[in-house]
Amino acid sequence: MLWNEVISLIRKDIRLELRQRWALNGILLYVFSTVFVTYLAFSGRIDAGPWNALFWIIMLFASVNAASKSFVQENNARQLMYYFLVSPQAVILSKILYNLLLMMVLGLMCYGVFVLFMGSWVVNQALFVVALLLGSSGFAGILTMVAAIAGRSGNNFALMAVLSFPLVLPLLLTLMKVSAAALTPVAFWSHAGNLLVLVLLNALVVVLGWVLFPYLWRD
Description:
- There is one protein chain.
- It contains 8 helices and no strands.
- The protein is mainly α.
- It has one domain.
- Helix 5 crosses helix 8.
- The longest helix is centred in the middle third of the chain and has 31 residues.
């Protein structure tokens, strides 16, 4: 029953996204234009360290923009309808999974555009892709919960930016360590500890959302 509700809510979000394509197109334009400006600033020549840092900075801000609209389109009447029709766990899981799909697409696109303009320093492709997927998952979970809190305060984007930074920072630092290792010829499992930390962070965010969101939803 729960997963039927989650799937129905994800389908609803996808239909709304396709109906309001300006939001997604704006995020994609942001990624493209930011990478292009980076290309102009560095004249297409950049070392591995700055390449890694700039990639995750662009990915972070694109993810914040993508997640900030999670609860914007849910007006009070629609939220009241959800309150009687579905469980709060279904609502938060559907938002996290939808943002996960969105951020995976966004991350792969960001990587593709980055490689197109700035070249690629990635040596271990498998390790980098796994870091990208785990990072997308972590961003989706953390930023969805922060967007829910900001939504209860009138969709205050400044509040979301302030709350999200200290929560995302541990995830971001671990991601940069793993992706920096992927720029060197190392074995995939040489950073198994950091990968495990990323998995645990993702699981912790989902558990916290499962436990805490119903209290926020009732308010």
